[in-house]
Write a structure and sequence with these properties.
The chain has 95 residues and is an all-alpha fold. The protein is 98% helix and 0% strand. It is built from one helix and no strands. The relative contact order is 0.04.
């Protein structure tokens, strides 16, 4: 009878340990899923922010390019006006 009680006690201990082990594995797996979900969310956020930053940089570069083109056009017009003024002033000096 003592051996049977000992055997039953050990069986119960093994069942409890196994149940706790399975419970810990389930919690760990759920935690892994939550961590994985958090990582996926973070990746999606970073990807979205990256696209927005690249888009803003592209817009800024386009705006700078337009400003450069406008400045170049103004410089050419100014050079043309200076040349015309110079020609007029040299023409007046000849008279």
């Amino acid at each position: 009878m003592v051996e049977l009680d000992f055997f039953m006690d050990k069986t119960i201990d093994v069942l409890i340990a196994t149940s706790l082990g399975i419970f810990i594995m389930v919690l760990h797996r759920r935690a892994d899923k939550r961590v994985h979900k958090m990582i996926e969310d973070l990746h999606d956020y970073i990807t979205t922010e990256h696209r927005e930053v690249i888009s803003k940089i592209h817009e800024m570069m386009e705006a700078e390019k337009k400003i450069d083109e406008d400045v170049h056009t103004m410089v050419l017009e100014q050079q043309k006006l200076i040349k015309e003024l110079h020609e007029l002033s040299t023409k007046d000096n000849k008279l």
